[in-house]
Amino acid sequence: MELTGAEIVVRCLKEEGVEVLFGYPGGAVLHIYDALHVQDEVKHVLVRHEQAAAHAADGYARASGKPGVCLVTSGPGLTNAVTGIATAYMDSIPMVILSGQVPTKLIGNDAFQECDSVGITRPCVKHNFLVRDVRDLAETIKKAFYIATTGRPGPVLVDLPKDVTGARAEFDYPKKIKMRSYNPTVKGHSGQIRKATELLAQAKRAMIYTGGGVVLSDGSKELIELTRMLGFPITNTLMGLGAYPATDRQFVGMLGMHGTYESNMAMHHCDVLFAVGARFDDRVTGNLEKFCPTARIIHIDIDPSSISKNVAVEIPIVGSVPNVLRQMITILKEEGLEPDREALARWWQQIDEWRAIKSLGYRNSDTIIKPQYVIEQLYHVTDGQAIVTSDVGQHQMWAAQYYLFDRPRQWINSGGLGTMGFGLPAAMGAKLAFPDVDVACVTGEGSIQMMLQELSTMKQYHTPVKIVNLNNQYLGMVRQWQEFFYEKRYSMSYMEALPDFVKLAEAYGHVGMKIERPADVEGALREAFAMKDRTVFLDFMTDPEENVFPMIPSGGGQNEMLLAGRDAMKNRHEEGMILV
Amino acid sequence: MRHIISILLENESGALSRVAGLFSARGYNIESLTVAPTEDASLSRLTLVTRGNDQIIEQIVKQLNKLVDVVKLVDLTEGPHIERELMMAKIRASGESRAEMYRLVEIFRGHVLDVTEGTYTVELTGPGDKLDAFIATVGDESIVEVVRSGVTGIARGPKGLHV
């Protein structure tokens, strides 16, 4: 039987097992909305801004591991979604974006609500398609899901002209797809894997450095097994937190600009660096010229272009993380390879000395709420079990530092693009994926105001999230940099005329709480999390001038961290001023 | 180092802009770029000339391979290869210099395509440096207009680049 293009779109989503679709209607997608209206298998969530549709689909994908899907109209619908698409692209999140387009005969005519969606999104998608013929529609959507979820995942956009969704064709959904131009490598090169395993076994001061790739490939189990066999210290990037349990002794904390002293020092002094699903981002490496000066480097990544991009690697392995790690475990067992236990004990002794510095220590206060204390209490009250999303800025770093993530997909943040406004819609997406798990959105008064309107969506779809607003009345990270590098000239970083967030939450039908005293922090969090079925906005009035420490200033090496309480300006690098 | 990279590309609309966009987005330079269909209608062959150290060229090749529309590519400069470019040039040729210009064209194995009282329009093929040499020999003051096709190339030996 022939179906309309719009019906084909909906049938494709069902075939792909899509349970929830985030979107916003408009002229060019009305056929699709009509087809959605007469079915109830694919649940549609009506966001209040298309950027939120992309972020929510993204949050859903990060939490569940399934591709997130969103639907937006042509022109402004698509351009509004671009920030969300770019966010997903930078963090390699599997997502399919369906966008309406003006009818094919009007394309290029500057028609109402027309934009070159394929052109605009090209640099921030893994791939995109414009469907010109309804007979190509089903296969194109199949390809979109295939490309989005395989290899290094990423967002894929399918642009759908209105005449294509209105035309009719036979529906035949391909079972499998094969593309001559797209064949991601999964299995690593066995010779390279053997070489890497042997090098690890010879190491005297090894360091394991893992990133978002372990989370994306569901490689946590293999990573834990291998790390425990080897007994080496392990650090996770901001995107990789949770892949290895943060409460485990071998975990030395996050690394990078605001990572722990012990993880960065261990990176700097290691003799073998084992990088797994991480991309040597500038926030991790600090000054490349000073990066891991004594290390021989092994790097596993599914994307060949990530290898030797920033840092030259001795043993590259292209392949899927769990796949390669399993082979390494097998080799270690079969060959009975053992690292040098004496050297390892000495290495741990050194690391424990670095650890003893307690780089995440901070001075708590009885009179003013310290943001770090709020996160510690959040961890405590949720027993470390909540899914935590965050926005971008100081609060993001504090959440990453003080909430100890023990499982992958528990920590959801915009690491690559650093998108303020991400946290709230992402929390909504995560809550829809896991309705029975506590979801907290750690945010600040700056970020939250970029996506506030989603409080309305959260009311409509009943996604009870706890919003932990660390309200310091400053764009805190901007202010921190202005304090350190611009002699405290706080240009445009102070937030005046903030709304009364309690009343605002109430206006949207949620619960609002304002917390001003340290003694009330734990009680407020307990009260909020006890309200299982309500979204609660917790507005914590925190120390306005608290800084994120420790810190590698731009231009510094990983061994040049500034610690809290020392003179922050001491190690300023002139060359660092031009870096961001 | 100068590299000639030859790419088999899906003959889809927008495929060329993905390649061009990659170069501008990542700050790589393109010295020349040619593209045309092949004997297989579903494929285009794109030849581009770029410059960079080994690390940059390695990234360019990896990033190109990552594009979904790129089916296969080869860096021709890695092995023995033949490089050709077509140039048409309109040159001043009058009075005493007219005969001299004609001889010059013959030395460079060019053909005269069009003749006017004061000009010759000539066609030359060869590697890029031969065409550069012709322009240098003729001299700027004698050049009215130059069009070049950009470099195309093929590897020596019995093997071909195909899917």
What's a quick, concise take on this entry?
In chain A, 36% of the residues lie in helices and 16% in strands. Chain B folds into two domains: 2-79, ACT domain (Alpha-Beta Plaits, 2-Layer Sandwich), CATH 3.30.70.260; 82-152, Alpha-Beta Plaits (2-Layer Sandwich). Chain B contains four helices and nine strands.
Keywords for this entry:
heterodimer, A: 580 residues, alpha/beta, Rossmann fold, 6-stranded parallel sheet, 21 helices, 20 strands, globular, B: alpha+beta, 5-stranded antiparallel sheet, 4-stranded antiparallel sheet, 4 helices, 9 strands, 28% helix, elongated, FAD (chain A), Thiamin_PyroP_enz_TPP-bd_dom (chain A)
Describe this structure as you would to a colleague.
The complex is a heterodimer of chains A (580) and B (163). Chain A is α/β, with parallel strands linked by helices and 580 residues long. In chain A, 36% of the residues lie in helices and 16% in strands. Chain A has 3 domains: 2-170, Rossmann fold, CATH 3.40.50.970; 190-355, Rossmann fold (3-Layer(aba) Sandwich), CATH 3.40.50; 371-541, 3-Layer(aba) Sandwich (Rossmann fold), CATH 3.40.50.970. Chain A has 21 helices and 20 strands. In chain A, the strands form 4 sheets. Chain A has a 6-stranded parallel beta sheet, sandwiched between helices. In chain A, α2 links the parallel β2 and β3 (43-46). The model of chain A has no long low-confidence stretch (mean pLDDT 96). Helix content of chain B is 28%, strand content 40%. Chain B has 4 helices and 9 strands, in the order βαββαββαββαββ. In chain B, strands 5, 6, 7, 8 and 9 form a 5-stranded antiparallel beta sheet that branches. Chain B has a 4-stranded antiparallel beta sheet with strand order 2-3-1-4, with helices on one face. Chain B is elongated, with a radius of gyration of 19 Å. The mean pLDDT of chain B is 95. Classes of the chains: A alpha/beta (580), B alpha+beta (163). Chain B: Residues 4-78 form the ACT domain. Chain B: Belongs to the acetolactate synthase small subunit family.
